[in-house]
Amino acid sequence: MHGPVSPGWLLVALCAATGAYCLLRMRSRVEEQRRTAGTEALMGFGMAAMAVPATVFTPPPWAWPGYAALFGGAALHALWTARADAHHLHHLVGDAAMVYMAVAMAASPGGHGGSGVPVLTGALLLYFTGYVLLSGARLVPVSVPGGAAPGGGRAVAWGDRPELVRACRLSMGIAMVAMLLAL
Q1: What digits encode the pLDDT tens for the residues 171-182?
Q2: Which of these, 41, 44, 87, 167, is most buried using a 10 Å CB contact count?
Q3: Which class for 164: exposed (0-12), middle (13-18), buried (19 or more C-beta within 10 A)?
Q4: How far is the C-alpha of 10 from the C-alpha of 51, rounded, in Å?
Q5: What does the pLDDT read at residue 159?
Q6: pTM of the prediction?
Q7: Could you give phi then psi for residue 56, rounded to 5 degrees?
């Protein structure tokens, strides 16, 4: 996952900003926002930490098993919560991908990235590429009949705006594709 320095820092910034926005969403009055925001913040910050260029910081050998354990626990949580909300199946796939990347990094010499299992990497790339395309299509503006404001004319808090949530999910999907390509 540790590729060139400039794209690495851009990936770190994108993932950290997404994680920070998801933390802010945890304060939302909308229960649906709060339910998923914590998991998405963990994913954003975890991806940011994994994307730090190796020329700047090489994690100690215990970090990769720590990532695997952290995201393994998050995957179990996603599996449990997927009973009530199908969106958590996507979180399950994302957490499993993070576990897979952490194991691949731990298995590579020096922890600088390995090839992983090409079939599994390909399957994850296919899934996240499809997710990115679908998420991007959902951001296309839709005209509101009669020129009414979204939300029935009432003001929507910026942390509760569905297009911002979709944009954050899209950015994390793009970041996951980039990280899998660099694996």
Answers
A1: 999 999 999 998
A2: 44
A3: middle
A4: 9
A5: 63
A6: 0.84
A7: -95, -45
pLDDT at position 117, please?
Answer: 75
The conformational region for residue 146 under phi > 0 = left, psi -120 to 50 = alpha, else beta, is left
At which residue do the structure tokens 């910050």 appear? 45
pLDDT of residue 94: 95
- Single-letter code of the amino acid located at 101: M
Query: Within the chain, which residues score under 70 in pLDDT?
Result: 1-4, 109-116, 142-160
CA distance 4 to 21: 26
The 10s digit of each residue's pLDDT in 136-149 is 998 887 655 554 45
The structure tokens listed for 36 are 């998923």
Is-contact 89 57, C-beta < 8 A?
Answer: no
**CA-to-CA distance for 59 and 53, rounded, in angstroms?**
10
- Nearest-angstrom CA–CA distance, 166 and 46: 19
d(CA 158, CA 21): 10
Per DSSP, the three-state class of 1 is coil
- 50 and 94 in contact (C-beta within 8 Å)? no
Residue identified by tokens 């839709």 is 142
- Do residues 93 and 177 lie in contact, with contact meaning Cβ atoms separated by under 8 Å? no
